[in-house]
Design brief:
12 strands, alpha/beta, five-stranded parallel sheet, elongated, 229 residues, four-stranded antiparallel sheet
Length: 229
């Protein structure tokens, strides 16, 4: 059974090209021309992944995504956007996007990103990804950090950074690698943002003194956990 893609885009020519290409790859493609139509089609037909433009008439992609997230907390959301500022990208991630692709884009890159999101979604469907970090439990799927029955929500960026650090406990993760994992690019303007999110993670993990996120100056960051006697 082929995966179903909901493609929401108000540019008719682009929709025809993308839909034909994806169908040629074996996907079942549903299209919509604005956020309202996209939301209605998601409600009636569902989808395994949603690919949507940000700037659309009637209802923009961000607003539509918020409503879709209420219906499905886990369905992958990939935004297409002509916007390029970190604030715009962050807004998309904070409302639940899994990835974004800047316009204009290569169809081959779109297909690669769709396959990657579907592979992760299908592998982990019904199964939360969790890490034990000292006394904390970090649930990657729900983006929550729990300790002693208390749970707090992390932002998308905080969760992405912590996930990367948690997979390499005791090892330095290059700052460039972290920025590419979070923002898909390494730019000087992102370094202050990265440091700010590291500071927030340190505060979130402060109730377990055995945990530390060490700044390896000039290299990156390391998540460490001291053994308790």
């Amino acid at each position: 059974m082929s995966n179903k893609i909901l493609f929401v885009e108000d540019e008719e020519d682009l929709t025809l090209i993308v839909a034909d290409t994806l169908r040629g790859q074996g996907y079942d493609v549903i299209t919509a021309a604005d956020g309202i139509e996209g939301l209605e089609k998601f409600k009636t037909e569902t989808a395994d992944i949603v690919v949507a433009d940000v700037m659309m008439p009637k209802m923009d992609g961000f607003t539509m995504a918020k409503e879709i997230r209420k219906l499905s907390p886990t369905v992958p959301l990939l935004f297409l956007t002509a916007k390029s500022t970190i604030d715009d990208i962050e807004e998309g991630f904070e409302i639940g996007a899994n990835d974004y692709l800047k316009k204009p884009f290569e169809l081959r890159e779109l297909i690669v990103r769709i396959k990657a999101l579907l592979r992760r979604y299908n592998t982990n469907r019904g199964e939360d990804i969790k890490f034990s970090i000292g006394r904390y439990i970090f649930n990657v799927t729900t983006q929550t950090l729990s300790l002693g029955g208390q749970s707090m929500e992390l932002s998308h960026f905080e969760a992405k950074i912590l996930e990367r650090l948690a997979t390499s406990i005791g090892k330095t993760v290059d700052a460039s690698e972290l920025m590419i994992a979070v923002w898909q690019r390494d730019e000087p303007s992102n370094r202050n943002s990265l440091h700010g999110y590291i500071h927030k993670l340190r505060r979130a993990l402060r109730h377990d003194p055995s945990i530390a996120i060490i700044n390896q100056r000039g290299f990156g960051y390391m998540l460490t956990i001291k053994a308790t006697v």
